[in-house]
Each structure stands twice: as C-alpha cells, then as structure tokens.
Amino acid sequence: MQNPFESGHIKNYILLYVSVVVIMILFFIASSLFHDVQEVDKKTFNTQVSEELHVNEAEEKTPEKKFKLLDKAY
After folding, report:
1. Residue 52's pLDDT is what?
2. Mean pLDDT of the chain
3. Which three-class secondary structure state does DSSP give residue 44?
4. How far is 25 from 17, CA to CA, in rounded Å?
5. Which sign, positive or negative, has the C-alpha torsion 5, 10, 14, 16?
6. How many CA atoms lie within 13 A of 28 on its CB side?
7. Are 35 and 44 in contact (CB under 8 A)?
8. Which is the most buried residue in 10, 46, 56, 68, by most CB within 10 A?
9. For 36, what's the count of Cα atoms within 13 Å in the CB-facing half-sphere?
10. Using CA atoms, how far apart are residues 46 and 32, in angstroms rounded to an integer?
11. Residue 5, Cα to own-chain centre: how many angstroms?
12. Whole-angstrom Cα distance, residue 7 to residue 22?
C-alpha cells in the first residue's frame, strides 16, 4: 500500500472531504429555506366556575344503566 502523502493522492482525499462538507451545508440551507414554521395560538382555559356544574344529590343516586352484566362469568 502506498503512502497517500508521498504519492500525491492526498489532494483527492481532501477534495472528497470538502465536497462532502459542501453537500451537507447545501442540504442544511435547502432544508431551512423550505421549512415553514407555523405559529401556534396559545390556548387559554376558562377559569370561571359556573354554578351549573353542581348537581343535586337526588339525581346522582339513580343513574341509568346502559349495559346489563351476565349472571355467570364464563
């Protein structure tokens, strides 16, 4: 195997390295140009407590059942 410093192939290695770096920089610039950043609206929560949320205790005692459970578990 020949020494690349002595045979003059070092220019090819440097050229390859520089071309890879340039391609990476070009891809970074292209991705940053075409990347659209959307502004997200800040969400706010309603902090006012409404009095309609309080339910009478009589209504809570008789909930309607949608499903009937089986007598035996198989």
Report:
1. 64
2. 80
3. coil
4. 13
5. negative
6. 6
7. no
8. 10
9. 2
10. 37
11. 47
12. 26
The model carries a pTM of 0.43
Rounded to an integer, what distance in angstroms lies between the CA atom of residue 62 and that of residue 19? 76
Helix (H, G, I), strand (E, B) or coil at 35: coil
Q: Are 10 and 4 in contact (CB under 8 A)?
A: yes
- Give the pLDDT confidence of 14-36 residue by residue, as tens digits: 999 999 999 999 999 988 887 77
Q: Who contacts 10 (Cβ-Cβ below 8 Å, separation ≥6)? A: 4
Written in H, E and C, the secondary structure of 54-70 is CCCHHHHHCCCCCCCCC
| Cβ(11)–Cβ(19) below 8 Å | no
For the record, the structure tokens of 67 come out as 């499903």
